[in-house]
Amino acid sequence: MKKRGDAIVLIGFMGAGKSSVGRTLARITGLSRFDTDEMVAGRFGLTIPEIFASHGEETFREAETVALRELSKKSQTIVVTGGGIVLRPENVTLLQELGTIVYLSADEETLFARISRRSKTR
Predict the structure, then answer these.
(1) Cα gap 106→13, rounded to integer Å
(2) CA-CA distance, 67 to 85, in Å (whole number)?
(3) Which of 4, 95, 105, 119 lies 20 to 30 A from 74 at CA?
(4) Which tens digit of pLDDT belongs to each residue from 100-120?
(5) One-character DSSP codes across the chain
């Protein structure tokens, strides 16, 4: 494994607060924030649900891996990930190489409430 980088990497289930915490950390620290879901959506010009519907999960997961490889060239950043990014062993290795991984969690009721608020996109 390569030397661990100095990024702060946020992982966790959908609705755990990764995006909110990432924005707050970026504001407090002044570090750049990169969101893998935003990177993938930007590459395709589609929302995440549209990518899944038109290209399938495997294409989306491969695009996540490509995004992580791109981020490996950056230092001192906040990296916000999608909930399923850890499904690929290669991604786990790339995440570990980026820096310190912080797992965010929430109880079931909180996750349900947060995801329900975004029922059109989740």
Answers:
(1) 8
(2) 11
(3) 105
(4) 999 998 888 887 887 888 655
(5) -PPP-SEEEEEESTTSSHHHHHHHHHHHH--EEEEHHHHHHHHHTS-HHHHHHHH-HHHHHHHHHHHHHHHTT--SEEEE--TTGGGSHHHHHHHHHHEEEEEE---HHHHHHHHHHTTTT-
pLDDT tens digits for range 22-66 = 999 999 999 999 999 999 999 999 999 999 999 999 999 999 999
CA distances from 60 to 6, 78, 105, 117 (A): 26, 21, 23, 24
Q: Which two tokens stand for residue 78?
A: 């906040």
Neighbours of 94 (CB within 10 A): 20
Closest to 64 measured CA to CA, from 92, 31, 45: 92
Site of tokens 């989306």 = 60
Which DSSP helix (H) or strand (E) runs through 7?
A: strand 7-12
